Each structure stands twice: as C-alpha cells, then as structure tokens.
Amino acid sequence: MPTPVPSGLPELPVTFRPTRTRVVLLSIGAALLAVLTVLSLMLEAFTTGDRATFIGTGLLVFGVLVLLSRPKVVASDEGVTVVNLTTSRKLAWAQIVRVNLRAGDAWVHLDLSDGTSLPAMGIQPGIAKDQAVADARALRALVEAHGTAGSAT
Q1: If you average pLDDT over residues 131-148, what whole number do you get?
Q2: Which domain of life is it from (predicted)?
Q3: Are 123 and 73 in contact (CB under 8 A)?
Q4: Tens of pLDDT along 83-136?
Q5: Total domain count, the chain
Q6: What is the dihedral of CA 49, 55, 59, 65, to 10 degrees?
Q7: Once rounded to an integer, what is the mean pLDDT over residues 16-43?
Q8: Long-range Cβ contact pairs of 141-148 (< 8 A, separation 24 or more)
C-alpha cells in the first residue's frame, strides 16, 4: 500500500536529473558527430579508412557524452534508485540516513545506514544550481517522510 504523501512533497515516483546539463551534453555530442561525419564525407583527399576514423571518433565522443548524461535519482514508493555513470543501486527508504548537498559539492551525497556514503550524480548544481538545491531539498523531505514511516513499521 502506498505511503500517503504529506503536502508539499512531490508525487511518487519522481525522477531527479540534471536536465540542462543533459541537453547541453547531448546537443554537443550530436553536433560534433554530425560535423565529423559531414567533414569526412566532403573531403575528397580522405581514404575510406580516414572517413571511418573520423566517424568512429565522433561516435566515441558521442558515446562518452551519452554516458555522462546518464545520471538520475528516481524516488518511488519502494525506495530510491541512484543511477550514476556506470552503476545503478536501489535503496530502501530506511537505508538513507541523510541527503547532503554542501557548498562546493559536485553532486548530492547520500549517507547510508551502513556507514557509507553514496554519490547521487543525478542531482548536481553544475549549470542549474537553484534547481539542484530544490531537488536536494525535495529528496531530503521525501527521505525524512518515508524513512521515518518505514522504520516505525
């Protein structure tokens, strides 16, 4: 049975991700891939191998930028899923002790009940600091609301 959401909290499920950063990364990647592809096809002095190298480099850079745009934090009734560059981890609400976003942090850190800290790269103040602060506060409020309810049962 879903936990009732106190007023002021976002409806679950909610996804936090650095949308502006994602748009910038994917736009640059697509533009670079297009430029390298067109350039390799227009230059008559290029051999087939040269063209393949140019296009392959564009695909490689685009792939890296897609990987960099992957992070997100998804909060649902069951808990929180943290998707970073190459890993994904599901956490129960009770596992999260604190949500931290201090001045100068590159992204949110989740303090866990086992004494470790998990970076949550889906909330990062890079381009949109105000949005990241609002997202961190919303996640903190959700953790407080659901973590307390989950530990009381």
Answers
A1: 91
A2: Bacteria
A3: yes
A4: 999 999 999 999 999 999 998 999 999 999 999 999 999 999 988 889 999 999
A5: 2
A6: 130
A7: 96
A8: 141/8, 141/9, 142/9, 142/10, 142/12, 142/14, 142/75, 143/80, 143/93, 143/96, 143/98, 143/99, 145/3, 145/5, 145/6, 145/9, 146/3, 146/79, 146/93, 147/93, 147/94, 147/96, 147/97
